[in-house]
């Protein structure tokens, strides 16, 4: 009996400190020191409306925009997830065939793998620099702008996320498309 | 090259950090003298816990106290989850949860497993996440750490193994809490959200609405990583950009997975007073970890098989289920560490790993002692050590001894029973669900990979890991009940049985070391220990591995 009372007491104390005080402390510091990222790194357009989060991929299907990686959840940021298909799965091959067709990839101009493979969260905000270059021609044509101008933008926004520890350079798709809209 | 450098920095850095942390754990969990700050904390914890904290417990009373507290944890979590629709802190109006899912989730978080048959952002209110789940993420690893401290005291020859209630408060407030605060602040710095607001609604550049779920993520992820918990705020865990926004947060989270289980080995060495023995055990764990890491890195560099016949340029390995911002080596590294320990968080989808990479996490969970869960990993390793001592003793024809105490029939029986129950839960459960519609109708992949999904789910439950081949449609009544029961049994059997035989060892007369004593702090013993673990594991689990991932690999690799 004593053990039960003692356990209840400890449960109460740990609950108050770990769920209450700890959360309040982290919340307080985050909201004061990093209010932008603490609330989800939301981006606003010229009219002040929220256009998305810098960390979260969104759907792009129009030719004048760079397209993100495929998403198993259709970029639903309220129910994220991956395909969970085996890399040997026939379903995966079928999905990739449709993606290849959408990009018009050929053996001479193969599609970069990250544009065919869905991310784990379905919300990967980045594509590789190679994948961005792959789309420059289409984007430039749809916008009636010289390809060199779009290429310069891709160059400027690409980065190696881990410096010397990562060799694949990547670029944030929403940031890139926003910059494109800003050019006109 | 950059991949190897990253692996070296993370694994090496964690190992270095674990040394001072191990000394700190000794001070926090088993102070040599109760003066200065150690004494002040002790008095504070006694005051918080009340009269019962003054009691010196033998292993039986310690186990009873541990179980009573765990029942309270389970019931409180169950009640909070069952009432979430009527409670505050529910800005998105999350509704009621199904009964078997509540049972599974309460069992999962009480047992430090964090297997999730729900998706956080879709099902759980902020109060459920913070008050029920995150609370258990603090106290469940604290229970493991307390159990290890008690076992180590018994092996040091003390028949009174401490006081569970004091140990629990020490582990929660002196270990988990300060580490979590530091980690959470680093994550906040790296851009992880921390807010009590509900979902944001955006209008995308193409003019469509997008609902973006968010919440108090940083606080949750920090303790999820540190306490070998692994249950994410969001469904896809640390692949989600809000749980893990970039390279920096990924590095912090990866170190947080393994540093405390590593430090537990040193704490064990300090308490039993045999640091050279602890170093041998640490080296054995590290050797097995590095072997698994090598296999995973090699196989995951192979491209996605399904894209082979299509015009797709694959020069960066298999990218299905992976995020680009962490770099190529980060996913296999995390997959190995999260299953070497009993963490179970993921930064890529394990279901989409190449078949032979996918077997590596399973090996981690089958052995469950290459660092293992906070506290309990070292307890599991102790069982293997006893078996290795016994086998070595038989081979050279001497009475086996461990830490100056004879290993006899009773101890070996209990050790074998512990290892056997782990295998039974995994193989028995897999056989049952693979043969019936309970498992067959829930698969996301066909053929051998479907079998792997079932095998992985039971391995994860029995190892108290919590990761999954998440394609499996596991939120069904049979899955919820079966894995819920396995998680609970697989949590308490490997805590109570080893405590029982450590307790019985403590009661024996110490023998004085002679020329005939098997040395347990030599390389030879390390090799013996590796061999015991590998042979036991291979004999038990190879047939199942052959039916799943190995079959898939052979079928598709030309």
List keywords for this structure.
heterodimer; A: mainly alpha; two-stranded antiparallel sheet; 8% strand; extended; B: 558 residues; mainly alpha; two-stranded antiparallel ribbon; 18 helices; globular
Task: State the gist of this model.
The complex is a heterodimer of chains A (184) and B (558). Chain A has 184 residues and is mainly alpha-helical.
Can you walk through the features of this model?
The complex is a heterodimer of chains A (184) and B (558). Chain A has 184 residues and is mainly α. Chain A has two domains: 2-38; 42-183, no CATH class. Chain A is built from six helices and five strands, in the order H-H-E-E-H-E-E-H-H-E-H. Chain A has helices spanning 2-33, 35-38, 90-103, 129-143, 147-157, 173-183; strands at 42-44, 50-53, 111-112, 126-128, 170-172. A two-stranded antiparallel sheet of chain A has the order 1-2. In chain A, helix 4 (129-143) packs antiparallel against helix 5 (147-157) and helix 5 crosses helix 6. The longest helix of chain A is centred in the first third of the chain and has 32 residues, at 2-33. Chain A starts with a helix and ends with a helix. Chain B contains 18 helices and five strands. In chain B, helix 6 packs across helix 7. Chain B is globular, with a radius of gyration of 23 Å. With 558 residues, chain B is mainly alpha-helical. The two termini of chain B are 27 Å apart. In chain B, 63% of the residues are buried. In chain B, 64% of the residues lie in helices and 3% in strands. Chain B has one domain (18-201, 212-306, 314-556). Chain B has a two-stranded antiparallel ribbon. Chain B has a two-stranded antiparallel ribbon with strand order 4-5. At the A-B interface, helix 1, strand 2, helix 3, strand 3 and strand 4 of A face helix 1, helix 3, helix 6, helix 7 and strand 1 of B. Strand 3 (111-112) of chain A pairs parallel with strand 3 of chain B, so a sheet runs across the interface.
